[in-house]
Design brief:
This protein has about 110 residues and is mainly alpha-helical. It is built from six helices and no strands.
Length: about 110
């Protein structure tokens, strides 16, 4: 019997943990880049990278400097949108409206 035949794939729960850690680290890096000003929230919302697809809009907005929950809630009230809406489930119209408002242009 050779060694390659005896190696079994990792159990499903270990693969899930590894994937969750990968997503968590990627999100932390994205939030760090947003906080440092390397990338804008408008760009993230328009491009929707894989690490932000399941992230809530409020989580992404509050990762900016000087954006807390109150400012985020007031901002999202201007566009009727829930704070719990994920970036990946937004329509193109919603993405454009948020990006325009973040850039200071009227939606």
């Amino acid at each position: 019997m050779n060694a390659a035949a005896t190696i079994a794939p990792a159990p499903q729960h270990l693969r899930a943990l590894a994937r969750a850690n990968e997503v968590r680290l990627a999100r932390a890096e994205l939030k760090r880049r947003v906080a440092d000003g390397e990338v804008s929230v408008a760009t993230v919302i328009l491009e929707c990278p894989w690490e932000s697809a399941s992230m809530s809009v409020a989580e992404l907005l509050t990762s900016q400097r000087r954006w807390g929950s109150t400012r985020c809630r007031r901002f999202l009230q201007t566009i009727p949108m829930s704070e719990n809406k994920t970036v990946g489930s937004m329509t193109q119209r919603q993405r454009s409206a948020i990006a325009a408002l973040l850039a200071g242009q009227p939606a």
